[in-house]
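To: structure subgroup
Subject: Chain for Friday's discussion

All,

I'm putting the inputs and outputs inline so they're searchable in the archive.
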Amino acid sequence: MVDTRWLAMAAEIILAALVVVGVFISGSVLPILGVFLSLLSPLPFVLLRLRHGLAAVILALALTTLALGGLSSPRQGVAFLLEFGLAAVLLAEGLRRGRRPEVVVTGVAALLTLGGVGVLILASDQWAHPLAAVSQHVQALLADVETWTARVGLSSEGVAPLSGAVAQPQTFLFMAFPGLFFVGSLLTASGYVLVLRGLARRWPAQFGGLTSEPFRWELPEWLVWAFIAAAILYLTGLPWLQATGLNVLIILVGLYFLQGLSIAAFLFQRFHLPRFLGTLSVLLLLFQPFLALLVAGVGLFDVWFAFRRLSLPKTPGRT
């Protein structure tokens, strides 16, 4: 008799490849929903790794790459590997080995960022001039924003122009693109980890015994000095130093934002606050950028105040 375990693994490999091909292609077919669906591409591979090992993931990646290359073009298959395939392997390995969330999320975000930039260069055929590919992408984003504002009836007439080269949207986006891209990848990677931990908590047997400890994010203290150094570089006003400082500041704000969220989640559990208040807080974060900066500030100042330790109940005799 044929071992049913191998049949189940083969069926799951084929199913994962079909699902990923569908959600990845939807990114170029559906304008907005497809983009969000394509971001789910790494999750089936992580499940395969946790259930059946690394060989199953390699087979599924190869099958998905061949399918995308046959349905569209070989370039589409390479783009998939660069954008999501390698990140899926790193995410699965980090979770299986029980690495700290800061390490897993930051590593996956770095691969997503490098892969995304690689896809931009691959699509533009400008290997000798990668910055030109980024510039074209920024221009396309600005064109899409202008088209959208015109479609909904918004107009930029009557608005006073901002002074300075950095204040111009195209120049600022081009300068800050690496940092913004990384922060977007950082939020995406943290979403992967939270979703997978939640699923593992609900169905532990299906995730190969993946532990689902609370999402505790704690950055090293020396990053504060990197934050200060980046601020000094930005204030120099020199073009390259200013661009470097700006991108480092954006990246660190994203990292400290996740630390602030971790502190907020801990305090919500510590004081048994109602869930609807947490949902309302998340909605406010989506629509109020100042609140997101405030959360990042909480993460930054945690180095000095240690909010999670201060919130613990005091033993008798302690003040």
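Points worth raising on Friday:
Confidence is low (pLDDT under 50) at residues 154-167, 314-319.
The first helix runs from residue 4 to 29.

D.
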